[in-house]
């Protein structure tokens, strides 16, 4: 009997990461504050698991201003709890080209538990053409108690 081991062709779908926009090259980022050890770049690139953290408590805004209008079809946000029990809210808005008014994409509230590390992953399929800017406003504690906003990851494609 003759036998030969064949190489099986891989039919694994390509990594979704290859479709993410290179925000480092395509946009200017504006942020209301950031901890030196947790800069906004940490949430916008694949290199860090720590993400961004505000330097002061309370509401914070992250804004991406694109060099040229972009088409956005997916928005992925990952928030991680810090052990503090609280209700967090975020508002995601976009600005069409030609400085038109911002339009709300989503407003979401969720609870973080003090019992364990918790995560909130939001993954939105959208169809936005001519995006000039994308803005994320985070209210880390809707009750008004002191809490620091953070963002583990923001990806667009």
TrEMBL record:
InterPro entries: FA58C, Galactose-bd-like_sf. Transmembrane segments: none annotated. Coiled coil: none annotated. Gene3D superfamilies: Galactose-binding domain-like (2.60.120.260). Residues 32-151 form the F5/8 type C domain. It holds the Pfam family F5_F8_type_C. It comes from the Bacteria. This is F5/8 type C domain-containing protein.
């Amino acid at each position: 009997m003759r036998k030969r081991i064949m190489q099986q062709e891989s039919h694994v779908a390509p990594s979704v990461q290859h479709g993410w926009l290179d925000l480092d090259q395509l946009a200017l980022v504006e942020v209301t504050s950031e901890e030196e050890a947790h800069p906004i770049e940490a949430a916008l690139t694949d290199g860090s698991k720590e993400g961004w953290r505000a330097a002061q408590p309370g509401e914070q805004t992250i804004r991406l201003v694109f060099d040229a209008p972009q088409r956005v079809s997916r928005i992925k946000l990952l928030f991680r709890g810090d052990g503090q029990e609280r209700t967090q809210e975020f508002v995601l808005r976009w600005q069409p080209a030609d400085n038109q008014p911002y339009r709300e994409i989503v407003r979401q509230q969720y609870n973080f538990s003090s019992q364990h590390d918790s995560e909130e992953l939001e993954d939105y399929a959208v169809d936005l053409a001519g995006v000039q800017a994308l803005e994320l406003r985070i209210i880390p504690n809707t009750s008004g108690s002191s809490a620091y906003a953070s963002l583990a990851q923001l990806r667009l494609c």
